[in-house]
Amino acid sequence: MEKGQYTRTEIFSQPEAWSAALEVLTENRRAALDLQPARRYSQIIYTGCGSTYYLALAAAALTQELTGLPARAFPASELWLSPRSSYVDGKTLLVAVSRSGETTETLRACEAFLAGKRGELVTLFCYGGMPLAKMGALNIVLPSGQEQSVAQTRAFSTLYLGTAALACLWAGREDLFASLSKLPEAGRRLLKNYALLAAELGRDASIDRFYWLGSGPRYGQAGELSLKMKEMSLSHSEPFHFMEFRHGPKSMVTPSALVVGLRSSVNAAQESAVLADVKALGGRVLTVGEEQADVQFESGVGEAIRNVLYLPVGQLIAFERSLSKGLNPDQPNNLDSVVKLS
Ligand code: F1P
Hints:
alpha/beta
């Protein structure tokens, strides 16, 4: 087996996985709408572990932005072991996201939530027949996110797209829901146009630290890309909200640092100013965004629903760095594909 064969296939097949997922979400549209979160719940909570916790962060920010309903994200272990510092009173819609559908912490969090009669559960996962698949009032399986690799790439972006679709539906934004169908083509273009740039950066051994900046609905993506860089290439990597970078982490900027800015359009000026500071300190910068960026989407898709496009090139940089260090991104150091506790 060639090192990274699975991960390469999984990264490059994301557009097809997204198309298949959108078909499943369309099939579940009525059931999702019938939950009527804005009318029936005081808050929505998203949860997962590792990658799917970062997914929960991204999904919560987007859901609150679109629906106006309070939405937060917690690691499943927090909901399971520290419910009092997590939940607030009032009927809750819990959305549990898990590639495997059998991560122990996620199952325990869902069991405790249901036992505590806190509200209703929606589950999103990639493998049918797993414990999580039967626990929700609505259970959505996205098999196109299944993958052989331990480090999530296709699973993350496909499950994330599922949460973005739910957010559009729950916000009554059928227009945004419909335009999700433009994302697979935009993803294909990104993977084609920037694979070489990602390879150059991934193979650049003069880079010894990575910072991923993202704010609002993009902070979760920053966290996920940082985790990919750690899991696949064993590199120093950290995510920050854009403006937070000046409050200390900036001290780490050297010519060997690469700062990847997942730049929005709405706050482009402020976010670009942070990246300009990094450059002035001699750090290297890669801007990713819809327009005027090193990695440019030009998707024509509304800002709220194109955050999945920030993922592919960052995943490829981590993938290429892993291979250039002689590692195998299909089987990261110390990791299993599912954390099962006794
Ligand atoms: C969650 C998870 C992954 C991580 C690793 C171990 O799995 O923590 O996020 O990358 O593979 O498992 P799941 O609940 O999403 O299946």
